[in-house]
Specification:
Helix content: 55-70%
Structural class: mainly alpha
Mean pLDDT: 93
Oligomer: single chain
Number of helices: 14
Distance between the termini: 48 Å
Amino acid sequence: MNDLLVRDGYRRAHALTRTHAKSFHFASWALGGARRRGALALYAFCRRLDDLVDEPSAPPAALVPRLEAARALVRAVCGPGAGAVPAPFDVAETAALRDTIRRFAIPEAPLQDLIDGVAMDLTVHRYATAAALDRYCYLVAGTVGLMMAPLLGYRDPAALAPAAALGHAMQLTNILRDVGEDLARDRIYLPQADLAAAGLSEADLRAGRVDARFRACMQAQVARARALYAEARRGIPLLDGARSRLTVRLMAAVYGDILRAIEAQDYDVFRRRAVVSGGRKLVLAAAALGLREAPA
């Protein structure tokens, strides 16, 4: 493998992550070295995969060949040979991804499952039940936790379920933060059964009504996300090395704090995007390092 090409791929993955995934980029500093580079290469693949199908005006059938190209790419980078890089994937980023997969023995299955999840976004824009949403969250994010687990290193296969739970929690957090943005794309990820139980209609969402019904629905979803973060934290002692354990504590703390930000703006996710400030991230990092108490 061309070392210069691999290094260029890692540089590109770093730049992409710094621009588009500030919380993940911030949390990944704790890993350092090859593990951090690998984490950024995995993010770059996930981002490029999502971008492949992020064309609202394109009919789903026109985007299917791109997903087939992604499947071919995964087979190539996980297979024994070098394998060709199908268009439109970047050759350097692919070299970094291949290096990461082989260095840390990341299995092919979660990468292929991720493609299944991305394919769902082409045709599925509503989720009837929480169980249906859970399946989607596993495919698009729980799988990322399973990719990250070998990179972080673990001593017991029992670490895999908490790893998937962290990805699930982060995806559900994104869904709650982005209710308004997703609605503008005619996507509603909040389970239809949960909306109906709260007495909410799609018209209520489109009107941006933040009333007692909407708050109750959001509170229930926030509680679900926090339970998933708690499950993820139970896997931290099973990880190898202080850096890996710190990284997961940081990721759970920073992403989980988005839930606090949603609560702080009284669940209005239609007019404001809930964010965690740079200063707040530093406070959370200090707490994760044991330098101060965790903030409220």
